[in-house]
Amino acid sequence: MRILLIEDDIDTASYLAKGLNESGHTVNMAHDGRDGFFMALDQPYDALVIDRMLPGMDGLSIIRAIRTSGNRAPTLILSALGEVDARVEGLRAGGDDYLVKPFAFSELVARLEALVRRSTTATEQTTSLKVGDLEMDLLSHKVKRNHQTIDLQPREFRLLEFLMRNSGQVVTRTMLLENVWDYNFDPQTNVIDVHISRLRSKIDKQFKLPMLHTIRGAGYALRAGI
Amino acid sequence: MLSVQASKLFNSSTFRLALVYMALFSLSVLLLLGFIYWSTAGYMMRQAEATIEAEITGLAERYELAGLPGLSKIISERLSRQNNSSSIYLLADQEFKPIIGNLKKWPKEQTSEQGWMSFEFDSGPPDEVGQHKSRARTFRLRGGFYLLVGRDVHDLEEIQSLIQEALFWGLLITVVLALVGGVTMSRTMMHKVEIINTTCRQIMAGDLAQRIPSTGGDDDLDRLVNILNRMLEQIEELMQGVKQVTNNIAHDLRTPLTRLRRRLDMLRENDSSIENSDELLDQAIGEADGLLITFKALLRISEVETGSRRIGFKDVDMTVLLQDLVEFYEPLSEEKGQDFTVASAISKPVMGDRDLLFQAFANILDNAIKYTPASGGIRLIMHDQLDQLQIVICDTGPGVPTAAREKIFERFFRLETSRSTPGNGLGLSLVAAIIKLHHGQIELADNRPGLNITITLPRSS
Fold first, then answer.
1. Nearest to residue B432, comparing CAs of B352, B349, B356, B324?
2. Which of B55, B125, B146, B368 has the smallest CB count inside 10 Å?
3. CATH number for the domain running over A128-222
4. B37, part of any domain
């Protein structure tokens, strides 16, 4: 993926660029709002990562301006402002996701990849999902692995659906809370782990190859192979 | 010093107000006295003039009828009749030589167009000395004779000057009294305001415990003082709260920061022994993450406390919310082998923020599951009352001693017995802030054994 990173803090920018490079992405950097805006117009990018507070031109103005020019590249806003109002303002300006500083690098990558995938697959109307030998029928709510039917609770079904839609990618705990439980809150204990291990016992236990993996310090990933 | 005080006095708004009042009051007193003067002394003068007018007309008519002898006769008659009266008559010939009358000679003073004049004359009787003032009218008779009829207005003038004097003193006393009153009033006011000023200056200098001394009365200034004092009390309480929180934060963040620093130090020292370094790194990152979580929680609490989230309040179906909550936490409780029972009535919605309410009950349930031992029990009950919703969460954990029940909602407060378990002491602070935001109440009670938390949420108003 070609990613444009507009971030005025050079330390943070180079750290993020290095990490994204290592994950196999090409990164162009701008440290100033105005430069970033012209770079975004100049070349097509698969995704934009824009800091909210920038010298020259602030992040939200950049997003509004490029959206007006018809550029629909998925955009992730980085900001130190974490209140609900600030988030809503960011998303209203045309941002696709909002990440509050400080954040774990893995969270940034997971969200960015999910964004890009969402923008490329949003047009397809899918009725079934398939990852390896795991199949999910979205209409009849049936799940099978290796042709063996698996009974899931409604919430487990939604959890698995989200994992399958993001298969091969790391999904963070926060992403699961927002998308599967639909409440914006922080559990004090890692209850999510319990839900994952329950799901794991249903889809992995009787099979040789485990699919649902815990990624240390980041989250979870559903993969077909190893 | 005196001039400073004087300028201070003049700058006082009360004094200026008093001055304006004094001017207005003096003006109205002046008008009133002027009217009294006009209607007493003026009236007497006008009466005298009217009498003179009538008399002169009468005499002139007499002259027309009876000629000079008739006129002389009647004048002498009148003069003799009213010997010591104040009437003045004089009939003179063409050269103003007196013919008959009680004036020795025709006065030199000029007459006005209507023939009126004022002049001084020697009062007739020898017992009285000096000049008397008189008011008179002259009339030219046919045949070139001159007639003068007048009144000795000495007494009248005396009365007039008496009244004038009385009016002058009255006005003077009014002005002096108003001035003295104004100065006294503004000095009293200035004194009271100065007390407030002094106290405020002391408070601004940092002495927040200062209070404005109250006189104990119930006038508007006393009420102002009372309100100011109450405001100061609130400010002091808030300041102390901030101070307390800041101290707590500094204290509670120092420990993990010290641990983090120590781990980094160790990492730098034993870079040769690789096997240990990964673990140390993980611990350091974990420590930093913990700090970030603490900060996030603190920010969240203060965000909730500002009350700005109230704008986004919507109808929240608590039945659904609690079902979601139970579904979210049941696996955790089950894993610990606890007995988790739920009794929830169907309820009408309450006004609130669903994310925050979920967070609040999640924190309480989190604690209940964390502190209740295996095979213990947790119960969640919701009562739907008419004007409020009551949610009770009880567990069979160690409970909270009565003495600590007030403190448990303070930031960073942790029971000594739970210091070893993970947590940052902010969970219940957030719960308290969220319930306060919803105008609700939290009560803690003994569940014998365990803790019984009752949360009351008022129905949407």
1. B356
2. B125
3. 1.10.10.10
4. yes
In contact, B372 and B341? CB cutoff 8 Å:
no
Residues B334 and B235 placed together within one structural domain of the fold = no
SS3 (DSSP) at A40: helix
Task: Give A137's strand partners.
Answer: A128, A142
Statement to judge: residues B384 and B296 lie in one domain: no
Question: Is the ipTM of this structure higher than 0.85?
Answer: no
> Is there a single domain that holds both residue B289 and residue B406?
no
User: Is there a contact between A48 and A4 (Cβ–Cβ < 8 Å)?
Assistant: yes
Q: What Rg value do the Cα atoms of chain A yield, rounded?
A: 19
Q: Compare all CA atoms of chain A with the CA of B327 and give the residue at the minimum distance.
A: A155
Q: Are residue B299 and residue B313 in the same domain, yes or no?
A: no
In total, how many domains does chain B have?
A: 3
Say whether B296 and A195 touch across the interface (CB within 8 A): no
Name the residue range of residue B388's domain.
309-458
What is the least distance, in Å, from the CA of B422 to any CA of chain A?
Answer: 9
Closest by Cβ to A184, choosing from B282, B308, B355: B355
User: Mutation test of the interface with chain A: which of B281, B299, B328, choosing the one with the most A Cβ atoms within 10 A?
Assistant: B328
Residues 59-88 of A with CB under 8 A from B: 82-85
Tell me how far apart the alpha carbons of residues B370 and A189 are, in angstroms, rounded to a whole number.
Answer: 9
Q: Does B335 touch chain A (CB under 8 A)?
A: yes
Amino acid (1-letter code) at residue B389: L
CB-based contact (8 Å) between B352 and chain A?
Answer: no
Q: Per residue in A119-175, pLDDT tens?
A: 776 555 678 889 989 999 988 989 999 889 999 998 999 999 999 988 888 898 888
CB contact under 8 A, B369 and A102: no
